[in-house]
Amino acid sequence: MLRSRLKSTFNLRKMTSIPTVQKVIVIRETGGPEVLSYEENYPVPKISENELLIKNKYAGINFIETYFRKGIYPTEKPYVLGREASGEVVAKGSSVTKFDIGDKVAYLSPHTFAQYSKISETGPIMKLPADSSDENLKIYAGALLQALTALTFINEAYEVKKDDYILLYAAAGGAGLAFDQLLKLKGAHVIAVASTDEKLQLAKQYGAEYLINSQKDDILAKVLEYTDGKGVDAAFDSIGKDTFEITLAALKRKGTFVSFGNASGPVTPFPLARLSAKNIKIARPQLFGYIAAPEEWQHYSTELVRLIESHEFKALISKTYPLKDYRKATEEQEARKTVGKLVLEIP
């Protein structure tokens, strides 16, 4: 009983040292990069009895933030951007038992482009080794969302088999490089699409086998050339509207179309009857649908840690920006001037 009281007092002391306001990247309306606001007096979230408050060190940058900013995915305003981060537990609710103040963690949660974020202890959060370096924290912040997306999609959206031919767009981006590596580990033949030869060579280094330059090549013709006219077993398409017709044509009979992005805008509505000609299956998955149950999160997060620690999976953190420079980061990302993963360093 005494120990419990002392622990509660200790937690309270820790919490009283936490500021009431913080620095964040927030949107108050939808639009282009000009609607992004770096604010220094945004409220620090309050935690409930089963939640943790995390002081963020790094946050991963993902293309999905542009969908929230543009209004493709509606949100209440004001809205703090961000999907993933790493950092340290600085406060915890009275019912929390799995984590302690001072624990280093990596986690998935909205609103991580901020100095402080909160998450339930039963949410998608993993404890990292106590001696984790800043570099290790950066790797996990940069790998978590995209690597888990690739890991779940190639096992559940379409279960990739050895010798499958897989069409992959944006193959040199953060998600693309994750798919390259994990598809190669599955024994698949990756047909990579990217906008420059330099990006394609990077995709090849990470596991792609066949290369298509989207600015110079006929994507469909190349796919048919590489597959002896049969088409691919599955396609992972993060582009959306501009590539829908190409992807549909590139699939073989009984192929699977995994659509998971809107880089060029949402896919135009189409009649389902169009899938019948080749018995095509289509999926529109999102990561959180595969890790919603605690046992699912445990399975996939454990596998990701194994892949990272064994060096079977490598996260290419190509550039780190200060939090205040997120606008510059997203402008470069949207202009396709970046490769690999971009990360924000939180002050």
From TrEMBL:
Keywords of the record: NADP, Oxidoreductase
Domain Enoyl reductase (ER): 31-344
UniProt GO cellular component terms: cytosol
Matching PROSITE patterns: QOR_ZETA_CRYSTAL
Classification via Pfam families: ADH_N, ADH_zinc_N
Molecular function GO terms recorded: mRNA 3'-UTR AU-rich region binding; NADPH binding; quinone reductase (NADPH) activity; zinc ion binding
Domain of life from the UniProt record: Eukaryota
UniProt name for this protein: Probable quinone oxidoreductase
Higher taxonomy: Eukaryota, Fungi, Dikarya, Ascomycota, Saccharomycotina
